[in-house]
Design a protein that fits this description.
about 120 residues; mainly alpha; 7 helices
């Protein structure tokens, strides 16, 4: 029963984000706003209120590999476009890798020096 309550809570946050996005912030996707509201709720609520969300998250994580199938099919469906743009896509991936890895290393060193374990 907790899993069902958690799933309803997750859907409620997504619905709240979508409604606010449609009314006030059309440039920001609703599910992203819903995720931000869910994060705020998890940070502010007590542990007893977050247990249903935890149960729902564990259930959804067990099905995570199945959720990867539609994007993979979409990639294969657009393979011609990917092949035509292979150089720009590769450059973007390499550039983001060259930026992200040093920033993560720097942040990790800073957190360790501050005495906070991630």
């Amino acid at each position: 029963m907790q899993t069902l309550h958690g799933l309803l809570g997750l859907l409620g946050f997504q619905l709240l984000g979508t409604v606010i996005s449609n009314l006030l912030l059309p440039s920001l996707p609703g599910p992203i706003l819903g995720l931000a509201f869910c994060l705020a709720f998890l940070c502010l609520a007590g542990e007893s209120l977050t247990l249903p969300l935890e149960a729902a998250a564990k259930t959804l994580l067990s099905y995570l590999p199945l959720l990867m199938i539609p994007p993979a099919v979409g990639l294969m469906d657009n393979i011609d476009t990917l092949q035509d743009n292979l150089l720009p896509i590769s450059a973007a991936l390499l550039g983001s890798l060259l930026i992200t890895v040093p920033v993560c290393g720097w942040l990790m060193q800073r957190l360790i020096r501050a005495g906070k374990q991630p």
